Amino acid sequence: MTTNTQTSSGTPSELAAAAAAAIQERFGIDGLDVSFVLGSGWSAAADDLGTEIGRCELADLPGFSAPVVAGHGGALRVVRTANDKVAAIFTGRTHFYEGRGVEAVVHGVRTAAAAGAGVLVLTNGCGGLNPDWSPGTPVLISDHLNLTGASPLAGATFIDLTEAYAVRLRELARTVSAELPEGVYAQFRGPQYETPAEVRMAKVMGADLVGMSTTLETIAAREAGMEVLGISLVTNLAAGISPTPLHHEEVIEAGKAAAPRLRELLSGLAGVL
Ligand code: 8IG
Predict the structure, then answer these.
(1) 173-49-215-16 Cα dihedral, nearest 10 degrees
(2) Checking phi first, is residue 130 left (phi over 0); if not, alpha (psi -120 to 50) or beta?
(3) DSSP output for 100-125
(4) Which of left, alpha, beta for 116 (phi over 0: left; psi -120 to 50: alpha)?
(5) 60-114 pLDDT, tens per residue?
(6) Of 43, 147, 210, 253, which is best to mutate to test ligand 1, by the most ligand atoms within 8 angstroms of its C-beta?
(7) Is this structure's pTM higher than 0.85?
(8) Which of 59, 104, 119, 215 has the most CB atoms around it within 10 Å of its CB?
(9) 3 state DSSP class of 227
(10) Which of ligand 1's atoms lies nearest the C-alpha of 128?
């Protein structure tokens, strides 16, 4: 009988434990301290987070499959930060709209938690509702609206989300970049972008940012007891706020243009987390 790690079975937490064990063995580390997930536009920041210990394809680890979105890598890098922490960097994520189920969406977060990471930095590219935030602006996530109708939690798992995004970590982020604004992130299922009416709805509900990731991962992270820092890169003004239609290409372009700022921000963070 052969073992195929990509078809490993088990409960979500067994699969996360298996992936965590594989990471520890493969990279010769005792565990992780911090985990970064790099979303649309953020991949260039991966190079400045620390001294590389090793890297592999995510698809080679138990429970992961290759991400499908252009502009997203699908690798795990493990580095030692300037602050002497062992950090995992996921250069891509599984999105809820891919239809692989919510367990697949949060598997990376649960793997990092199983490997001991107590801090999770979730980044994403998103649409902005505040016209003052031009494309290329990074924004700290202060709270979220999970509009997916889904949850990574099963059964009577009543997790408190009063401070889903840690105030402590936002304050640390502002020691790196003092002027970072903050806002509420709404996750839509996607993959289509919103209609202008949906963007107006999100605004009435209190959203400042609209995207297709992050909230389900935050919920899983809070269940696992991790502190979460969320940072959105506004890559486009949301539909109807922007006078022009949305294209995935503009999203990638905004990410490229913002790359130096994002590198500086994340490498600064890696030094203080
Ligand atoms: I990048 O405008 C990016 N991702 N839902 N809306 C949603 N997701 C996004 C957007 C956007 N831009």
Answers:
(1) -140
(2) beta
(3) S-HHHHHHHHHHHHHTT--EEEEEEE
(4) left
(5) 999 997 655 554 558 999 999 999 999 999 998 999 999 999 999 999 999 999 9
(6) 210
(7) yes
(8) 215
(9) strand
(10) 2
